[in-house]
Design brief:
Bound molecules: adenosine-5'-triphosphate
Keywords: ATP-binding, Nucleotide-binding, Transport
Distance between the termini: 41 Å
Number of helices: 9
Strand content: 25-35%
Strand order of the largest sheet: 6-7-8-3-9-10
Shape: globular
Order of helices and strands: EEEHEEHEHHHHEHEEEHHEE
Protein name: ABC transporter ATP-binding protein
Domain ABC transporter: 3-243
Family: Belongs to the ABC transporter superfamily.
Largest sheet: 6 strands, mixed
Pfam families: ABC_tran
């Protein structure tokens, strides 16, 4: 079991942000977390990475109970690609694609340590998988946002994490860059043993590789389980308190609102 949360609640500033949450992630699964703004997605990720502690309930991540194991060691096994990481790339404008990917081994963003030949070989292989070999010697300042996202995903794989959190990776990407990034994510899932947790507001980003989906609402699990049982018109209408229609074509989900609900 990779993540095990039992009746977890989190209260901050007198506000109950997470309420009686139960969630289990097993080896070999890939999860999507879908929630509207303010549902508690970021808070849930902060709990998983040990940046926040449950007020009530118990949780284990990678089999380790919180408070009984050094968090530093645990965090090395969890990658987190987020917008704030993308922001930090601004301070490494001169670093090349290869340097950024390599730096994942040392949990830094720029490269301050000397990599071995084996590290460079591993980084090169990852860059092939992520489709960014052409950015090997290109400084970050010349990269598009979509290219930076793929470089950051490559950087995360450099540490061979057991869990990789992809926190709204398609936010701000144009439709072509988004499709390219989704393809990259699918490929990485096929080539690595890392469990992916993909956080999003949009159901069209939930690719077939995400076997399981958690619908998070008001800090609670609205529903969870096999993706095809979550992304149905009935369930999504209840979830969003709006009549919505879900369709699936070429293995991709789409959501449509009736005209009078817009
Ligand atoms: N420290 C805090 N004190 C009080 N309330 C907080 C605190 N941190 C978050 N919240 C509230 O908890 C709720 C969940 O926030 P969170 O950022 O986890 O949601 P989210 O699902 O990630 O949202 P978004 O999709 O908009 O990024 C929000 O209503 C937020 O205002």
């Amino acid at each position: 079991m990779l993540i095990e949360m039992n009746d977890v609640s989190l209260i901050q500033n007198q506000k109950r942000i997470i309420q009686h949450l139960n969630w289990k992630v097993e080896d070999g699964q890939h999860w999507a977390i879908l929630g509207l703004n303010g549902a508690g997605k970021t808070t849930l990720l902060n709990l998983v990475c040990g940046y926040l502690f449950p007020t009530k309930g118990t949780m284990k991540v990678l089999g380790k109970e919180f408070g009984k194991y050094p968090l530093q060691d645990l965090r090395k096994e969890i990658g987190w690609v987020s917008n704030s990481l993308l922001e930090k790339m601004k301070y490494h404008d001169e670093s090349t694609g290869l340097q950024i990917v390599l730096s994942g081994k040392f949990a830094s963003i720029g490269l301050y340590d000397t990599p071995t030949d084996a590290d460079v070989e591993k980084a090169s292989k990852i860059m092939d998988q992520v489709g960014v070999q052409k950015l090997r010697n290109q400084p970050c300042r010349n990269m598009s946002q979509g290219e930076k996202q793929r470089i950051l995903i490559g950087r995360a794989f450099m540490a061979s994490p057991k869990i990789l959190i992809l926190d709204e990776p398609c936010a701000g990407l144009d439709f072509l860059s988004k499709e390219q990034l989704l393809k990259t994510i699918e490929q990485m899932a096929a080539h690595n043993r890392t469990t992916l947790i993909y956080v999003t507001h949009h159901i069209d980003e939930i690719l077939p590789v995400f076997s399981h989906t958690l619908l998070l609402k008001e800090g609670n699990v609205f529903s969870e389980g096999m993706t095809e049982n979550q992304l149905t018109s009935d369930k999504m209408s209840q979830f969003s308190a709006t009549a919505v229609h879900i369709s699936k074509e070429n293995n991709r989900y789409a959501l449509k609102l009736p005209d009078d609900n817009v």
